[in-house]
Every structure is written in C-alpha cells, then in structure tokens.
Design a protein that fits this description.
Elements: E1 8-11, H1 17-26, E2 31-36, H2 51-56, H3 60-65, E3 69-73, H4 79-88, E4 94-97, H5 103-107, H6 111-117, E5 122-127, H7 142-149, E6 156-157, E7 161-162, H8 169-192, E8 196-201, H9 202-209, H10 211-220, E9 239-242, E10 247-251, H11 255-264, H12 279-284, H13 286-297, H14 302-311, E11 315-318, H15 322-326, H16 329-334, E12 337-341, E13 350-353, E14 367-369, H17 378-384, H18 389-397
Parallel strand pairs: 1-2, 1-4, 2-3, 4-5, 5-8, 12-14
Antiparallel strand pairs: 6-7, 9-10, 10-11, 12-13
Helix pairs in contact: 1-8, 7-9, 8-9
C-alpha cells in the first residue's frame, strides 16, 4: 500500500510550486483532484512552451507537475461552483491553494470556511511572502523571489554581475517544502485527531535554500563575492575547466585533495613553487594558479580527466548537456524518470521526472497518467459526488 492511498487532496493550485507539492502526493497514491477554471485551466498549460504544446494546453512544465491528478473544471466565482467545492471537501483530507492572500476568503474557500464543513482538514496556503506581514500582498514569481531574497547576489561572476539561477529553483523547492509541511500536519493529525493550517511562503523557502550563506552573513557579516564557476575554497585546483573537447568540474576541498589533483595532472612541480606550495599560498595566488592549471587541463579530453581524477579519489564530473544527463543509466536504475502514459494529445508515452526518492516497498508510482484536458474528469468526479446525469449536463452547459 502506497503511503497516501485513500487520501483525498483538493488542489486549487496552479503554475509550479503548488502543483509540485500536490504531485508528491498523487505519485504516492493519493486521489488529487485539481480544480481548474473552465476552458483556460491552469495558466502553466500555455506557458514556457512552443505553439504546438500551447495549442494542446499541455506545456512540458505543466505535464511534469500534474501527473496522476484528475481535473475538475468549475467556476469558483459561481454559487454552483462553491456548492460543488463544499461537497468535494466533505470527505477530503487535504486542501491546498496558492491564490494571492485574501482571494480564497473572497471565494468562500479559505481555511475558516472549509474548517466549518470539515473540522479535521489539513489546509495549506502557498504564497510568495506569506499570508500576513508587510509584503504579503506583493505578487511573486520564481525570479522575483530570487531577486528579493538575495539569491541573485550569490550567483554570477564579477564580469556578469548578479544573475538569476537558470531553473525554477524557488518554485520547485517551495513545492517540496509544502509537501513536507502537509505531511507533518497529517502526522500530527494521526496523533491528535486535529487538522491544521499551514502557511508556506516562497520567500521563506528561499531563505532555507541559501541557509549556509545566510548564516555566514548573519553570524559573521560576510558577503560572499561573485565567483562564477570558481570554487569557494579559492584553490586553483577546483572549478570548471575547459578540456580538449568540453568542460570538466573538479572539486578539491582539503589540502590532500589539492595535492592529489596536482600530482595526477602532472603538475606536481607546483608544490615546490612558493606561490603554490601551501593551501594558503594557493589562495593568495589564485588567479596565477588558475591560469596555469587551466592551460594544463586543455591538453586532455574530459573523459580522460574524469578517469585520471577518479583513480586518485578527487571528485570530478563532466559538465554535461541535458541530453547526456537524461540518458544516464543511473536514472533508469533509480526509476526517478517515470513513464507518463495515456496522456491526452500524445500518441507515445512521455518521459517525465517524478518523485525524487525510492523505497524498498510501495514507493512512488513509476507509471503515471492524467495531465489531460482541462476538466477531463469533471463528469466522473461530479457523478462520484452524487450529481445526476441531468445535473451534470446542466453544470457543464453553464461553464
């Protein structure tokens, strides 16, 4: 039995952070019912994609955040829509929403309204800055939170200046953070019988994501420089280096790692040079060292350097393309990339990223389905709620 089989999740979220959080549950057996606006649906359906995918309203980003969910299309601003929601939550375990603070209350589906009908509910709100406070009303997307949280100033180089991280790192981490918060509330409910309200903010998640750097600043007042691909150890033996046919990342943390790297790369003579003989000297003469090491690294291929460094225990990895990374046999072995099957609009199964862990028994689903059309499961869900065929026909006609 999967961890969340029998759990019913009513999902009012869209874009990435919220849908990722609820997908953690759907791939672990929960029945996640995704509430979408009629016709348009989740705004992510037509975002970050090309014309073909937009026409299908199934962008890759939407697909990877909505596996194994059922889509119910209703107008939350209508009286009928609210009645459907209230019937839906009568036996729900979890409600998740990521409206702007205050919107859920206007719609009559905020925690207090839901709690009156389902006292033991676990209710999670996800927002940019939290439900209350001086910034709670600020609009937020991933890049805006990166800017506001200072993450820009932890990425980039002196030449580039501060830069955003090139993935939706705040959205994804907030989603996983929210899933943990909901799981914690469910665990508490098992022990106390009581539901709980949890308030998850992207801004808070960004702080945790950069906690070690934040601590360095808050404790010591240290503002880290923009170092690009260089190592924070300030050792010329560490960083990203150009090779004969690509790039390689070498991570040397301790003095022993540095010595092993220099010996393995045929640069042992630098250990006799006063500029590079000690850990401290190498830090003081970093740029000179990087220039010398960089030239030496161009003499062999990436594969040759990976083999050489691996043999002496130095952490090394080729800087790979997405094509190379997603075809790694390790992914197949781990089963983290799932097969998305029976997805409306596609003739073939799709490879998509699922839940990032495995379990010895009853782990996340390896075959997933259902990020289909907007409202694809509306009739099915309404029938489960006790609506007659006539009721359903009338509801659908008035969308």
């Amino acid at each position: 039995m999967k961890a969340y089989e029998g759990l019913k999740v009513v999902d009012f979220t869209q874009v990435l952070a919220g849908p990722i959080s609820t997908q953690m549950f759907s791939l672990l057996g929960a029945d996640v019912i995704k509430i979408e606006a009629p016709v348009k649906g989740d705004q992510l359906r037509t975002t970050l994609s090309d014309a073909e995918m937009v026409a299908k309203r199934l962008s890759p980003a939407f697909l990877t955040a909505n596996l194994n969910k059922r889509s119910l299309a209703i107008d939350l601003k209508s009286e009928e829509g609210r009645k459907i929601v209230y019937r839906l939550i009568e036996d729900a375990d979890v409600v998740v929403e990521n409206f702007r603070p205050g919107v859920a209350k206007k719609l009559g589906i905020d925690y207090e309204s839901v709690k009156k009908r389902r006292p033991e509910i676990v209710y999670c709100s996800i927002s940019g800055y939290g439900q209350q406070g001086p910034r709670s009303s600020d609009k937020a997307y991933d890049s805006a939170i990166q800017a506001a949280s200072g993450l820009f100033t932890l990425n980039g180089s002196e030449e580039s200046g501060p830069m955003r991280i090139g993935i939706m790192v705040i959205d994804m981490f907030t989603g996983v953070n929210a899933a943990f918060a909901i799981s914690s509330a469910l665990h508490r409910k098992e022990k106390t019988g009581k539901g709980q309200y949890v308030d998850v903010a992207m801004y808070d998640s960004a702080m945790l994501l950069a906690a070690s750097q934040m601590a360095d600043y808050m404790v010591r007042g240290n503002v880290p420089p923009l170092i690009g691909n260089a190592s924070p150890t300030r050792q010329p033996t560490a960083g990203v280096f150009e090779t004969k046919d690509g790039n390689v990342l070498i991570a040397t943390i301790t003095p022993d790692h540095n010595i092993a790297m220099l010996k393995a790369s045929g640069m042992e003579h630098l250990l006799e040079d006063p500029r590079f003989a000690t850990f401290e000297a190498r830090q003081e003469n970093l740029q000179e060292g990087l220039k010398i090491v960089g030239e030496a690294m161009k003499t062999k291929t990436t594969a040759e350097w990976v083999e050489i460094m691996s043999k002496v225990g130095v952490v090394v990895q080729a800087v790979r393309t997405l094509a190379e990374a997603t075809s790694d046999p390790q992914l197949e072995h781990r089963g983290i990339v799932v097969q998305g099957e029976n997805i409306t609009g596609f003739d073939q199964a799709l490879r998509l990223v699922g839940v990032p862990f495995i379990a010895n028994e009853d782990g996340p689903k390896k075959v997933a389905s259902s990020p289909g059309k907007v409202g694809q499961h509306t009739e099915e869900i309404l029938r489960e709620l006790g609506y007659t065929d006539g009721d359903i026909a009338n509801i659908i006609a008035h969308k």
